[in-house]
């Protein structure tokens, strides 16, 4: 018993073919949009790759790019097929290809769905990558004389200015690392030597932050040094002061930015997936109704279109058995214990050509 | 004496009309572009209106917008006229319209050229406006509690970070202004009292700059305070230090930015002016060629087209005479009435 059977008159079939032709071309455009979204995401991730640890997050934009390209190709082919389906003679060209095409497109739409879900699941990997990356970047902030790390100071400063954030989780992260290089510390001064000695690892730690943490909206000039020392500054209390520096951590700020981006892209991909699925359904109906029309023989007759010929369980069973028999192709028939010399008569009815006359048995005359 | 006479056989007239139709549609698009460029420039100027003292320079984008809108109308009519030009029956209805049309179109085309010239000439006015505006901005930097000036600090900080500049002429402008408000100065401290006493106007001046002057590309953490004191910082020489803070003045940075923008726009508008001029010249030739055909039964004869029937001076007088007689007529009437009134009085 067929799944979702619909009757199709000739005019309805033609209209369906035309509509599907237009929809396929729209799908090509959405494929291009997917491709460009993947490219955009790739560029955005690459821009800040210095701040992200070596985690494999590039697979998401790569997947989107691949899916976008394949969508263009598949829908272009689909457009061509639907264009030819209006005319019965042209349809015969595509008859054999249509079913494999539909199967391929079905698996492709699954890939699109997986792509959309990956956009949402990237959040956690991204958070970890940013956490590690920012810690590293802050640690190497002072190493402006080491090749390979000399631009980290500039990168971190610009990040903090642009995203209005300070440190990894907050500004206190700067208190735990030495962000002033030894090149600029006067080792002859008692104060500097004392501070270095008081630290276990010999690091020059202070309760100060770089200038890029300064909040533009603060009414007073920025307080960068001796932040926790209330008496060092007039009319200042560091526990209640929230406008002096940026309070948000850079990890949170970057994560917010990328999550927002990924959610928008994920939503677009989901909508594209639904659209592709509907186009696929239309093409399936078109294919089944045209095949039924051919079976009936009359191009102008009414025919049925369906999604599946039998119910879902039966279709699954038949397909599984087909796959199993494909696997058995090389196996020997066990009816005669595997001996190839024994002639096992064929159980199927033999077909001897158009007039079905068995050939004359040749008898040898000695 | 006719200006620029040219012979126009029938095919040439047809080609001229067709080419002109296409050209006028291109010129319509160009007119829309001019309007957009004017809007763009105005938006950019308004964004930094807080550091500009006067808005004299806004005349350039305003003119561009007016000219853009006018050229849309001019080119629309041009395309309609050249569509009717080849039809001898429909062309005569434009007869009375064409003279004022050409006067108005020439006026707006000349205005377009004036806008381009002004965009180059306005440099001095813009510079003085920026100088005064930035001086005020720096002076009111500390007044974050005064209504009307509380956003100056934010604006100046943002400006310095975005344009990578410091101060008006350079960073030393900050040494002459008290940019730390009295609210945050501890008047019980001896150091503060000494510094205020040592200044004639009782201002708290420091040789330091705000954090927004700091250059992120510097290899060392930013030195903002005691900039001129070499011994206050290790391994520091303020005369040779180039990367610590931005050395460029904000006036120069803003001026370069706006002049660059106006030069680019000026170049574009100049090419649009040439396009518009060619549309008008072609239309004039078409009009004069078609007028010579009027009245003839054979519309395919060869005619002559020209730019001006009389010389340039005579044509100018012809256009100005109505305006002058209007003014002179008023004077004549006044003289007449005063003559009549005078003998009547005694």
UniProtKB/TrEMBL annotation, chain A:
Pfam families: Tetraspanin. The keyword Membrane applies. The chain crosses the membrane at residues 20-39, 59-78, 99-123. It is a multi-pass membrane protein. The keyword Amino-acid biosynthesis does not apply. It comes from the Eukaryota. GO terms for biological process: visual perception. Residues 329-366 are annotated as: Disordered. Keywords: Membrane, Transmembrane, Transmembrane helix. It is found in: Membrane. InterPro entries: Peripherin/rom-1 (IPR000830), Peripherin_LEL (IPR042026), Tetraspanin/Peripherin (IPR018499), Tetraspanin_EC2_sf (IPR008952). GO terms for cellular component: plasma membrane. Belongs to the PRPH2/ROM1 family. This is Peripherin 2-like a. It comes from Fundulus heteroclitus (Killifish).
TrEMBL record, chain B:
Keywords: Membrane, Transmembrane, Transmembrane helix. Its main location: membrane. The keyword Membrane applies. Signal peptide: none annotated. It is found in: Membrane. It is a multi-pass membrane protein. InterPro entries: Peripherin/rom-1 (IPR000830), Peripherin/rom-1_CS (IPR018498), Peripherin_LEL (IPR042026), Tetraspanin/Peripherin (IPR018499), Tetraspanin_EC2_sf (IPR008952). One of its GO terms (biological process) is visual perception. One of its GO terms (cellular component) is plasma membrane. The chain crosses the membrane at residues 59-79, 100-122, 257-281. Belongs to the PRPH2/ROM1 family. This is Peripherin-2. The lineage of its organism: Eukaryota, Metazoa, Chordata, Craniata, Vertebrata.
């Amino acid at each position: 018993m067929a799944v979702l059977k619909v009757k199709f008159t000739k005019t309805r079939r033609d209209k369906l073919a035309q509509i599907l032709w237009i929809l396929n071309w729209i799908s090509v455009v959405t494929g291009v949009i997917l491709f460009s979204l993947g490219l955009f995401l790739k560029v955005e991730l690459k821009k800040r790759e210095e701040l992200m640890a070596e985690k494999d997050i590039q697979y998401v934009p790569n997947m989107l790019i691949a899916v976008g390209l394949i969508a263009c190709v598949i829908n272009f082919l689909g457009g061509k097929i639907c264009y030819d389906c209006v005319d019965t003679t042209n349809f015969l060209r595509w008859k054999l290809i249509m079913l494999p095409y539909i199967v391929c497109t079905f698996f492709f739409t699954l890939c699109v769905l997986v792509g959309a879900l990956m956009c949402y699941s990237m959040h956690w990997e991204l958070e970890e990558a940013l956490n590690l990356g920012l810690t590293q970047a802050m640690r190497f902030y002072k190493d402006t004389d080491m090749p390979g790390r000399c631009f980290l100071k500039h990168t971190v400063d610009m990040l903090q200015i642009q995203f209005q954030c300070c440190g990894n989780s907050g500004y206190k992260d700067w208190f735990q690392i030495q962000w002033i290089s030894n090149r600029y510390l006067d080792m002859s001064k008692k104060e500097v030597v004392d501070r270095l000695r008081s630290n276990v690892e010999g690091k020059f730690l202070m309760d100060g932050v770089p200038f890029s943490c300064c909040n533009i909206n603060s009414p007073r000039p920025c307080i960068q040094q001796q932040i926790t020392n209330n008496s060092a500054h007039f009319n200042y209390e560091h526990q209640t002061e929230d406008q002096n520096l940026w309070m948000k951590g850079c990890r949170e700020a970057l994560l917010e930015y990328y999550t927002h981006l990924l959610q928008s892209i994920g939503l677009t991909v989901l909508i594209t997936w639904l659209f592709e699925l509907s186009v696929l359904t239309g093409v399936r109906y078109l294919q089944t109704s045209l095949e039924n029309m051919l079976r009936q023989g009359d191009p102008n007759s009414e025919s049925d279109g369906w999604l599946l010929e039998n119910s879902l369980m039966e279709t699954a069973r038949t397909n599984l058995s087909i796959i199993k028999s494909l696997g058995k192709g090389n196996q020997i028939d066990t009816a005669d214990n595997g001996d190839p010399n024994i002639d096992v008569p064929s159980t199927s009815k033999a077909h001897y050509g158009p007039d079905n006359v068995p050939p004359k048995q040749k008898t040898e005359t000695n | 004496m006719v200006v620029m006479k040219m012979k126009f056989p029938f095919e040439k007239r047809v080609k001229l009309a067709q080419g002109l139709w296409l050209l006028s549609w291109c010129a319509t698009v160009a007119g829309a572009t001019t309007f957009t460029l004017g809007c763009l420039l105005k938006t950019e100027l308004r964004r930094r209106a807080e550091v500009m003292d006067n808005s004299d320079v806004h005349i350039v984008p305003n003119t561009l917008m007016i000219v853009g809108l006018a050229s849309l109308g001019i080119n629309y009519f041009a395309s309609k006229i050249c569509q009717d030009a080849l039809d001898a029956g429909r062309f005569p209805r434009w007869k009375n319209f064409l003279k004022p049309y050409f006067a108005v179109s020439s006026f707006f085309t000349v205005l377009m050229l004036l806008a381009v010239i002004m965009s180059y000439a306005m440099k001095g006015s813009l510079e003085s406006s920026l100088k005064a505006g930035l001086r005020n901005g720096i002076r009111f930097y500390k007044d974050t509690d005064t209504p009307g000036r509380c956003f100056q600090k934010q604006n100046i900080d943002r400006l310095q970070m975005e344009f990578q500049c410091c101060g008006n002429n350079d960073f030393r402008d900050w040494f002459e202004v008290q940019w730390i408000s009295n609210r945050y100065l501890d008047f019980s401290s001896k150091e503060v009292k000494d510094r205020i006493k040592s200044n004639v106007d009782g201002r708290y001046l420091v040789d330091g700059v705000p954090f927004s002057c700091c250059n992120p590309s510097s290899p060392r953490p930013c030195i903002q305070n005691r900039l001129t004191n070499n011994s206050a910082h290790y391994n520091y020489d303020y005369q040779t230090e180039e990367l610590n803070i931005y050395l460029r003045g904000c006036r120069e940075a803003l001026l370069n930015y706006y002049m660059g923008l106006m030069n680019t726009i000026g170049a574009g508008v100049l090419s649009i002016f040439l396009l518009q001029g060619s549309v008008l010249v072609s239309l004039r030739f078409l009009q004069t060629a078609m007028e010579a055909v009027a009245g003839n039964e054979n519309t395919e004869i060869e005619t002559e087209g020209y730019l001006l029937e009389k010389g340039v001076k005579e044509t100018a007088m012809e256009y100005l005479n109505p305006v002058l007689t209007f003014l002179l007529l008023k004077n004549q009437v006044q003289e007449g009435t005063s003559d009549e009134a005078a003998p009547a009085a005694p």
